[in-house]
RNA sequence: GGGAGCAUAGCUCAGUUGGUUUAGAGCAUCUCGUUUACACCGAGAGGGUCCGCGGUUCGAACCCGUGUGCUCCCA
């Protein structure tokens, strides 16, 4: 078959993925083999594949494919997260386009639209993963709102409530005025903002004086219920115990003292608005101040504000400047830079707000989760994230789990008209509880909580509930697959998700959820900016796959992404991947071209050295790669593979065994060469599954597939043989360099004379050496040869005889530079060795090594000097 | 303000318990080359005060202290 000039990935990739699927290679059922399980971090149903997913899933696929090739029962579970806030926002937007407002719909009507949306768009991202070659067990595709999963989430709520870990409390929360929901602290992003600091005068009761208060949020003064100063502040001592009037509304409020107030910020006097600031709220609690909520849930001013009712608080902020100024109550306005919270989802400026929310108290359930990581029952890669984890877990705060949304798991709590609440699995059970207090209640009297649970309150069950570990306790699958082996995720969700999964695992399975956590970096653009839709710096992944092929994209993203380090995405890495594909393709073409020239009678004497060397080098690299992969050093393992194939195999081995133009090749050499290629495709397969499978099949007829082929045990490498090959490389490079420097053209032939104590070594590699440095003959000599180019490698000397006229200056310069280096080196070694304390204190083998270095350097210097003289 | 981390070649990073040459790789750069697998290529080369300053040690890129700069997380 005639192969195309360059590798064309698209058709090949689609074909192989279908083939693997049809063979059922990705399916897993419990059996007697060791399980290797990964649960995919479920992407949002709203998601489309981006670089972060690409990195994350490539890593998982590498791990799972490797496990499969090690003969383990590999199970990689796909799925999606209902992502309550993000999805609800999308559905609301979709409805708006159709001219429907959410408020015009009933809860059930809205959810119907939401499910419709989910069915239509929810699976897109999973389809895209197929393009990347991800070997997921598609039959297991899970969703955080599947019926059983839903049930389990509710059950966990009931259970935690029963154990006293869930409570309902009025707390200051972050309020998203656009989404009209509470946000957890983690969903708030603090940004530096240019604000104004308004100095506002409050009239003091009983005289005509004022006290000036500084604030960046003048619209909140309608909620003021005190002014606070530091008790030590001399400026205000005369005002202790007095009252002031809040501007415009003239509410009479006390001046209180607390050392929370800093003396040197603003005017030293703080307006206290318990309803709209977390610190003020705490002051309010301490001094029993009235709480006046002046905001509606959409961020407009409420009736309690008395002024500007129904207007947005940010518009009011602007208007306040004029109104206060007109009233003569604005002393001055300063420019001021401060940190302000914004909603991660809607980018709305977050308002601190008092609200009744459901909470999980974390201290108790966090304890075993902290322990399992600290004692390395769960290993973090890289381990540096342990510290971060510990710090967070030791200072853990309660978790606000209610969200004012409809799309999600509805909170299983029912309220009686008098406000009393019952937590129960359903309305009937709730009624029974509520009737204890009021026997006359009926089902129509009680109402279920309108709110949903935080998305993470369902995804923390993911590692076991995808196997129905909670909805069907003790089933065969959960026993077989749990705990899972490796979780691959981004460090930014270590608290949102990783920590909570560990807690849930211990709480409900009595076991850690996974053994290893591999933290990927964040994918950034070339300038180091995080990829985001608003910056428009996130490339279209599917387009990249179209251009470069999935293998090249996988290569590109993996080659420079050590665990836990951010990766700066640069398309040139994909080019490197594509070039690598093409290199592999051309190896195939080269070897295939030899097939019809196989000669079964030809011996392999000249190629024996090359074959021995490569065989051992291959074993050595196989071992190295194993070690690297076991340590989760995926990027380095890929580099090692790359260099084995490109440098050792292509640049050296193939050149050494390559038959001359239209010359035959011995069967033994051909077979070995094919065998090595098969082995290397096997090793590379987890990283670049498509092209390796393709080449594996094209290089020789096969019954099996690489995808589920179990790797043979790695042989021990003979390091002496490997070192022999390295010496040969070194000699060839040195001779080529000398040729280059003396302007010998590649076509110019040379005669080579070797002065060495080990003639035997060189005899075995004569034919390779001739081929590689274009020498017509090799002779051995005991002394220098005149009119030649002299090259020294280790203790051996090489003389290049040529008919071309030589210019010795370049060569001389090289030798002099080498001489200077060696002399400097010798000096440093000698200095070390002449230090008595070194000889006394250092380990004997270290001293011996230094002595060896010294001897080598002296010998080498002698060789160079001799060479210089003969010039 | 509290915490975690990072700083090594132009760029991205390796560098294991301190001693395998006076620090390595890939990409980029430069020189030479179109020899029948591959120019998406080959052969070769140059390039570093291991952030600064102290200390420990016979010996420090590595350990300790300190300064500077950057990143992330939390308030």
Poorly predicted spans: none
- Please tell me how large the radius of gyration is: 37 Å
Q: Which percent range fits the helix content? A: 40-55%
Number of helices: 28
Distance between the termini: 55 Å
The name of the CATH superfamily of the domain at 541-717 reads: Isoleucyl-tRNA Synthetase, Domain 1
Q: Helix- and strand-based class? A: alpha/beta
Estimate what percentage of residues fall within beta strands.
Answer: 15-25%
Describe the largest sheet. Answer: 7 strands, mixed
> Which architecture of the domain at 541-717 per CATH?
Orthogonal Bundle
Describe this structure in words.
This protein is of the alpha/beta class. Among the domains are: 191-346, Alpha-Beta Complex (Isoleucyl-tRNA Synthetase, domain 2), CATH 3.90.740.10; 541-717, Isoleucyl-tRNA Synthetase, Domain 1 (Orthogonal Bundle), CATH 1.10.730. It is 44% helix and 17% strand. The strands form ten sheets. Strands 7, 8, 9, 10, 11, 12 and 13 form a seven-stranded mixed beta sheet that branches. Helix 19 runs antiparallel to helix 20 and helix 26 packs antiparallel against helix 28 (844-870). The chain starts with 8 loop residues before the first helix and ends with a helix. The mean pLDDT is 87. It binds one RNA strand of 75 nucleotides through helix 10, strand 25, helix 18, helix 20 and helix 23.
Task: Give a brief rundown of this model.
The chain has 871 residues and is α/β, with parallel strands linked by helices.
């Amino acid at each position: 078959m005639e192969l195309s000039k360059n590798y064309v990935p698209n058709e090949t990739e689609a074909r192989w993925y279908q083939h693997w699927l049809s063979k059922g290679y990705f399916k897993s059922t419990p059996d007697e083999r060791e399980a290797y399980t990964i649960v995919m971090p479920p992407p949002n149903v709203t998601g489309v594949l981006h670089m972060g997913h690409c990195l994350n899933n490539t890593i998982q696929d590498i791990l799972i494919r490797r496990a499969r090739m090690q003969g383990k029962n590999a199970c990689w579970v796909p799925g999606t997260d209902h992502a309550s806030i993000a999805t609800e926002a999308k559905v609301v937007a979709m409805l708006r386009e159709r001219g429907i407002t959410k408020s015009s719909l009933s809860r059930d009507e809205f959810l119907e639209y939401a499910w419709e949306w989910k069915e239509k768009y929810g699976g897109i991202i999973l389809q895209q993963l197929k393009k990347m070659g991800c070997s997921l067990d598609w039959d297991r595709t899970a969703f955080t709102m599947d019926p059983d999963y839903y049930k389990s989430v509710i059950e966990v709520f009931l259970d935690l409530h029963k154990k006293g870990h869930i409570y309902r409390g009025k707390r200051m929360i972050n309020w998203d005025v656009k989404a009209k929901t509470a946000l957890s602290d983690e969903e708030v992003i603090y940004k530096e903002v240019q604000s104004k600091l308004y100095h506002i005068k409050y009239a003091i009761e009983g005289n005509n004086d004022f006290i000036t208060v500084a604030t960046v949020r003048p619209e909140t003064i309608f909620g003021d219920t005190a002014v606070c100063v530091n008790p030590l502040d001399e400026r205000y001592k005369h005002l202790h115990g007095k009252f002031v009037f809040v501007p415009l509304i003239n509410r009479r409020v006390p001046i209180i003292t607390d050392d929370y107030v800093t003396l040197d910020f603003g005017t030293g006097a703080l307006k206290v608005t318990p309803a709209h600031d977390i610190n003020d709220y705490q002051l309010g609690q301490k001094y029993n101040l009235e709480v006046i909520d002046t905001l509606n849930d959409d961020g407009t001013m409420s009736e309690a504000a008395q002024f500007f009712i129904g207007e947005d608080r940010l518009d009011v902020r602007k208007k306040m400047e004029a109104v206060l100024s007109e009233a003569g109550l604005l002393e001055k306005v300063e420019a001021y830079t401060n940190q302000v919270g914004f909603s991660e989802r809607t980018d709305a400026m977050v308002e601190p707000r008092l609200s009744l929310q459901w909470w999980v108290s974390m201290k108790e359930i966090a304890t075993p989760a902290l322990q399992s990581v600290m004692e390395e029952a769960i290993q973090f890669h890289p381990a540096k994230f342990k510290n971060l984890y510990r710090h967070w877990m030791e200072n853990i705060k309660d978790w606000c789990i209610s969200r004012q949304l409809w799309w999600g798991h509805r909170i299983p709590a029912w309220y009686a008209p008098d406000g009393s609440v019952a937590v129960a699995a359903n309305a009937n059970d709730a009624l029974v509880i509520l009737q204890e207090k009021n026997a006359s209640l009926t089902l129509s009297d009680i109402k279920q909580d309108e709110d949903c649970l935080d998305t993470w309150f369902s995804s923390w069950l993911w590692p076991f509930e995808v196997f129905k570990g909670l909805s069907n306790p003790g089933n065969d699958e959960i026993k077989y697959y749990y705990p899972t082996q490796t979780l691959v995720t981004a460090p930014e969700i270590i608290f949102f998700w990783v920590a909570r999964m560990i807690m849930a695992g211990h709480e409900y399975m009595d076991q850690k959820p996974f053994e290893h956590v591999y933290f990927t970096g964040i994918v950034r653009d070339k300038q180091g900016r995080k990829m985001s839709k608003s910056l428009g710096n996130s490339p279209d992944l599917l387009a990249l796959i179209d251009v470069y092929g999935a293998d090249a994209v996988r290569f590109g993203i993996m080659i420079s992404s050590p665990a836990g380090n951010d990766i700066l995405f640069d398309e040139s890495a994909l080019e490197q991947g594509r070039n690598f594909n093409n290199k592999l393709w051309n190896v195939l073409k080269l070897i295939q071209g030899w097939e019809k020239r196989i000669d079964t009678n030809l011996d392999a004497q000249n190629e024996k050295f090359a074959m021995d060397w490569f065989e051992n080098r291959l074993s050595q690299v196989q071992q190295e790669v194993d070690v690297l992969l076991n340590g989760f050093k995926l990027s380095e393992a890929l580099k090692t593979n790359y260099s084995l194939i490109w440098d050792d195999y292509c640049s050296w081995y193939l050149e050494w065994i390559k038959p001359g133009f239209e010359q035959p090749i011995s069967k033994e050499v051909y077979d070995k060469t094919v065998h090595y290629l098969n082995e290397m495709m096997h090793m590379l397969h987890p990283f670049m599954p498509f092209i390796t499978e393709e080449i594996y099949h094209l290089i020789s007829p096969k019954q099996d597939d690489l995808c589920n082929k179990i790797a043979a045990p790695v042989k021990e490498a003979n390091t002496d043989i490997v070192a022999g090959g390295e010496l040969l490389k070194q000699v060839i490079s040195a001779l080529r360099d000398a040729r280059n420097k003396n302007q010998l053209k590649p076509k110019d032939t040379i005669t080579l004379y070797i002065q060495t104590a080990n003639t035997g070594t060189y005899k075995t590699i004569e034919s390779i050496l001739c081929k590689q440095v274009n020498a017509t003959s090799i002779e051995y000599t005991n002394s220098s040869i005149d009119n030649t180019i002299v090259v020294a490698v280790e203790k051996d000397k090489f003389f290049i005889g040529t008919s071309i006229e030589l210019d010795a200056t370049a060569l001389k310069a090289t030798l002099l530079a080498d001489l200077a280096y060696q002399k400097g080196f010798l000096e440093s070694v000698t200095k070390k060795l002449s230090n008595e304390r070194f000889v006394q204190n250092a380990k004997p083998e270290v001293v011996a090594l230094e002595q060896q270095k010294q001897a080598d350097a002296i010998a080498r210097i002698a060789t160079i000097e001799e060479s210089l003289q003969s010039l």
